[in-house]
C-alpha cells in the first residue's frame, strides 16, 4: 500500500493517550408493538484525536443508530459512550452534527446560519463576523453570504451545514450520510471540500455512509458493520497518501480496498435476505 509521507503523518497521526471517542459495549433494542427488535448488538471501538473514521455496512445494520447514540439523540440500551473520558448522557455543543437532509434555517442568510451557534453562545459581532468569513472562504461561498438557503443548490447547502458545524468548534464532528441526496458529480466535489475543511480544522470526524468509494477516499479507517443486528465486523486502516486527490480513486491500492470491502458487504447483505 502507499505509505503516508512523514510530513503528512506528523499532521494526522492521532495523539497518544485517552481516545477522543470510546464506544464501550453499546447496544440498542427498540420496543415494538409485537415485541423487541435488536438494532445493535454490543459494539466497542475507539477513535483517536484528529482521526477521520467512516462506518460502512449494509442497509439497516445500525450504523446511523451508533451515530445518534453518540450524538445523544438516542439512548443506548446497554454500554456507554465517552468523549474525552466523559460519559455522554444527551445532546451537547461538544458534538457537531451534519445530517443528510438540509437543516439550515430558511429565514437566515448563509452567514447568519454559520453564525447561529456562536450567537447563542454570546460571541461578539466582530468574533462572529471573523469566524463566518473564515469558513465562507474555506467552503468557497464568499459571494453567497447574503443568500438564503432557498437560493442555493443542494451541494451549497451542505457546504454551509458543514461550515456551521465547524464554526461552533465541537470536539467531534458527526456526519450521517451528508452527501447521500446529492448527484454523483456534486458528491465527489463535496468529498474534496470536506477533506479540505478537515485538513484545516484537524477535527475528529465520525462519518456514516453506504458508499464504498466515499468511505475509502475520506477515511483513516473504515469500520465495517454486520447485517442487523449490527456489530463491528472489521476495522480496515486506509493507508493512502494525504492530502488526497480525486485521482487516487483510480489507483491500484484503492481498487484493492474497494474489492475487499465490496466482498465483505456482499457477504453481510446476503445474510439479511
Name the descriptors.
single chain; alpha/beta; Rossmann fold; 8 helices; 10 strands; 37% helix; globular
Q: What's the shape?
A: globular
Mean pLDDT, to the nearest integer, reads 89
Q: Regions with pLDDT < 50 over 5+ consecutive residues?
A: 1-15
Q: Widest sheet: strand order?
A: 6-7-8-3-9-10
Instruction: Give the total of domains.
Output: 2
Which CATH C-level class of the largest domain is it?
Answer: Alpha Beta
Round the Cα radius of gyration to an integer and report it.
Answer: 19 Å
What's the multimeric state?
A: single chain
- Write the CATH homologous superfamily of the largest domain: P-loop containing nucleotide triphosphate hydrolases
Helix content: 25-40%
The appropriate CATH architecture of the largest domain is 3-Layer(aba) Sandwich
Largest sheet: 6 strands, mixed
Distance between the ends: 34 Å
> What order do the SSEs take from the amino end to the carboxyl end, as H and E?
HEEEHEEEHHHEHEHEEH
Number of helices: 8
Q: Give a count of the beta strands, DSSP E runs of length 2 or more.
A: 10
What is the third-level CATH name, the topology of the largest domain?
Answer: Rossmann fold
Structural class: alpha/beta
Catalytic activity: a quaternary ammonium(out) + ATP + H2O = a quaternary ammonium(in) + ADP + phosphate + H(+)
Protein name: Carnitine transport ATP-binding protein OpuCA
Pfam families: ABC_tran
Keywords: ATP-binding, Nucleotide-binding, Translocase, Transport
